[in-house]
Each structure stands twice: as C-alpha cells, then as structure tokens.
Design brief:
Chain A: Residues 19-65 form the F-box domain. Chain A: This is F-box domain-containing protein. Chain A: Pfam families: F-box-like, PP2. The complex is a heterodimer of chains A (284) and B (167). With 284 residues, chain A is of the alpha+beta class. Chain A has helices spanning 5-10, 27-35, 39-45, 50-56, 59-63, 70-77, 87-95, 275-278; strands at 98-100, 105-109, 116-121, 126-127, 136-140, 148-152, 158-166, 171-181, 183-187, 190-194, 206-211, 217-222, 231-240, 247-255, 265-274. In chain A, helix 2 packs across helix 4. In chain B, helix 4 packs antiparallel against helix 5 (78-88), helix 4 (57-71) packs across helix 6 and helix 6 packs antiparallel against helix 7 (109-123). In chain B, strands 2-1-3 form a three-stranded mixed β-sheet. In chain B, 56% of the residues lie in helices and 8% in strands. The chains are: A alpha+beta (284), B mainly alpha (167).
C-alpha cells in the first residue's frame, strides 16, 4: 500500500479517513440509489437495516415522487396539515384514497409511479330521472369503491352528466366510465348478478363524451355487451399544461334514442388517471 | 479556475499526476481531471501531484477511463457516450461498490448518478434478504424494531413477490 498517514500529512491533506468498502457504501450513495427506485421498492429496502431506513426517509428522495400538487390536495382539498411532516409521510398519506366533496369523490396517488388518480361516484353525477324509483335506484354493493351504484331498471332517455374542477399536475390523463350490465346480487358469500332488466343495448350504441380543458369535445360510441362484468369504458384523454390553476372537465354518458327503452345498467363511477396507468385498464 | 483558464489561453496543456493507493502514478491533462470536484479544489489550491489514498489502481484506472471519455463529450457524440456508459456499468456488484465509493469521495457527480442508477436497476424487485446478501449487510434490527418498520410501511407492502437471486 503506497498511501499511509504520513504521506497524507506531507501533502497537507488531512480530510480523508480510510473507510472499508463494499459492506459500507456511504449513506449518500445509498440515498442516491434509492432515489432511482419506485416508492414501494424504497419502503421495502427500509427493512434492510437501520442505515437503509435512515437513507430511505430522506426528503430529497420523496420530493421527486410526490405529485406537484400535493399541497393543494392535502391542504386545500382535504384540510389536512402538511407542515412539519416528512415528504415520505405525505406520500403515504396520499397513497390511500381520500374522500372529498361529501364522499362523492376520492383522490389518491398511485404507489408505483406517484400519478394522481380520481374517482367520482354515481352520487357525484347528475343522472336524469334519478329521483324516480321506476327508473333509477341507488343500491348498496361492495363491488363499488363507494359502496353504492346507480342502477337503471328501465328508461327511454339515458343521461348521466358530471364535471370536475381539480388542480392536476401537468400531464395527459385518461377518463373512464365504470359500468356493468346486470344488477349485483350476493348469494351467500358468492358474487352473483341479476340480468332480468338487461335489454336495449344491442339496438344502438351508447355515447360517451368528454369536454377537455381547452374546450374540445371527444366523443366515442360503444355497444354495451359484457353482461355481468364491470368494464372500464375509455371515454377520452385530456392534457393538463398548467398545474397552478384548476383544470375543468365535463363528461357524460348518453343514449337518448327514444324509440326504444333500455335497462339493467349499473353506473358505478368515473375514473381519471394518468395515461401511463390507463393502459392497464380495458377500454371500450 | 484561474490557472486552468490561463493555461488554455496560452495553449499549454497543464498536466497533473494522480497517485493511487497502490502507489501507481497516472499523468493526465488538467482539463480531464477537473471533472472531479475534489481534485478541482486541490488544483485550485496549487497541487499538481494528487495522492488518492482511498482509490486503488484498478478503480482509478476505470475512473480515468470514464473521465477521458466524458471529457470528449460534445453535442454530436451523445449516442457514443450513452453506449460507453452502458458498457461501463457492466461488472460485478463489488466492482460497482468500489467505483461508487470512489466516485463519492472524488465528487464526480455524473459518475455517481450513472452508478447509482445502475445499482438501483439491478436491485429493483429483489427481496430484502437478497439485497442484504448483495450489499453484505447484516441486519441490525431487533425483532421489535423490524416489526415496527414493517408496520410503518404497511401502506406500501401489499402482495408482490421479490426476486431472491444475487446477480
């Protein structure tokens, strides 16, 4: 070994301490390695030992994982305290779906990629004829994240409208309607479905519409045909370019051809998520 | 900084000598070596022989290879540098840990990022046990603490199998 303590002082360098390598890479390196991993991976590695746990809590790691609008979501929307909390704790708080608007909407961030997701319950939408029990009923079911769906027995004029004003982080988002033909029913503990009112969907397609922040309307049509299965119907995508102002969108589901009735439809919710996550969902 | 700018003006290439912990000396142009913040500061302080007692010859050779290549970086050879980087991070975990410790000590930020990204890619999806083996780390948690850490991260751990292999 050429280097020793005396040669260090000969050169006037004294800020070096010889460290064992391999089993002891510096904590700064560990933190940097962790910063390249997904949130779930980082949390897993916190279990390795105390040094990893300390490194895994560094704010600089989590700052990049948190969506840019986390203060808006936690403080303004949910009324939670942000000050004094670690970025990691903020991430954990946000990764659980949080209800707002009287429980008719939920917001959360995806644990894998940190993207902001929203769901809007059927109770948070305007449904034509919803107060008339001959047409529509709210029925409780654990097949919905909101524990309730709007069930259409029979109607001529199907119209479900909703809108949302939300401060999204920049990016492209996809919007889906979660629908099922058939009424959820439970036989003992097994999932079951009642098809007795299902009719009229093979005659004309339903129409989905999305009005994007820049005022464009995206329209898609689709025949509903999957009986007894919840389907996420892709309505359209929208782009958010400014994360400092609220983005306004409108969406609807209609079938207003009054020459025939239709029925047996469950409307659960509308889901909005980053387009990267949307690929996992089936579309219309 | 003053010395480097004056030397480039006169067209003279100022040379520096790096000395590894094994005593081997490497002569390099200053313009290449100042990518490394630690050395840059020493050059500014007037040193021209730089002993690196934390870096052995094998590791230093690799790091010089990296600095030489990255000193050639221009707008037009991005692809070439990318391929170089890809090749550069191939090797065992042990080699990478040697390099990352050295890069951290020498403050070569680009190399730190490159190596940490590469290590992250390679431990992605590994089980806790596998990562402990790879890093050669012993578990210093008490069973109670381990339970507590597990609880703290309950929100993140749902299902999912992790890779137990060590490469």
């Amino acid at each position: 070994m050429g280097a020793n303590a005396s040669s260090i002082s000969d050169d006037g360098l004294n800020y070096v301490s010889l460290k064992p390598k391999l089993d002891d890479i510096p904590e700064a390196c560990v933190a940097l390695v962790l910063s390249y991993l997904d949130p779930i991976e980082i949390c897993k590695l916190a279990r390795i030992n105390r040094a990893f746990r300390a490194a895994s809590s560094a704010d600089f790691i989590w700052e990049t994982k948190l969506s840019s609008n986390y203060k808006y979501i936690l403080q303004e929307l949910l009324g939670l305290k942000v000050a004094g909390l670690d970025k990691k704790d903020l991430f954990a708080k946000l990764s659980r779906p949080r209800p707002f608007d009287g429980g008719t909407k939920e917001v959360w961030i995806d644990k894998n990629n940190g993207g902001v997701c929203l769901a809007i319950s059927s109770k948070g939408m305007a449904i034509t004829g919803i107060d008339d029990r001959r047409y529509w009923n709210h029925i409780p079911t654990d097949e919905s994240r909101f524990q309730t769906v709007a069930y259409l027995q029979q109607i001529w004029w199907l119209e479900v409208d909703g809108d949302l004003e939300f401060q999204f982080p920049e990016g492209t988002y996809s919007l889906f309607f979660r629908l099922q033909l058939g009424k959820p029913a439970k036989r003992l503990i097994r999932r079951a479905c009642n098809y007795e009112h299902v009719h009229g969907w093979d005659l004309k397609p339903v129409q989905f519409q999305l009005t994007t922040p820049d005022g464009c309307r995206v329209t898609s049509r689709c025949y509903l045909d999957n009986v007894g299965i919840w389907v996420q119907h892709h309505v359209g995508d929208f782009v958010v370019r400014d994360d400092t102002v609220p983005t306004k969108i409108k969406f609807s589901l209609t079938q207003i051809d009054c020459t025939h009735t239709k029925g047996g439809l469950c409307v659960d919710s509308v889901l909005i998520c980053p387009i990267s996550l949307a690929k996992q969902l089936s579309s219309c | 900084m003053a010395s480097s700018s004056s030397s480039s003006k006169t067209g003279l290439k100022k040379m520096l000598t790096l000395k590894s912990s094994d005593g081997d000396e490497f002569e390099l142009e200053e313009s290449i070596v100042i990518q490394c913040q630690t050395i840059k500061h020493m050059v500014e302080d007037g040193f021209s022989l730089i002993p690196l007692q934390n870096v052995d010859t094998k590791t230093l050779t690799k790091i010089i290879e990296y600095m030489k290549k990255h000193a050639e970086k221009t707008e037009s050879n991005k692809e070439e540098i990318k391929n170089f980087n890809k090749e550069f991070v191939k090797g065992s975990f042990d080699d990478q840990f040697e390099l990352v410790s050295a890069a951290n000590y020498l403050h070569i930020n680009g190399l730190m990022d490159l190596l940490c990204q590469s290590i992250a890619d390679r431990i992605n999806n590994k089980s806790v046990r596998a990562v402990r083996e790879i890093f050669n780390i012993s578990n210093d948690y008490t069973p109670d603490e381990e339970e507590k850490v597990r609880d703290e991260h309950k929100w993140a751990h749902e299902g999912g199998e992790f890779d137990e292999s060590l490469d």
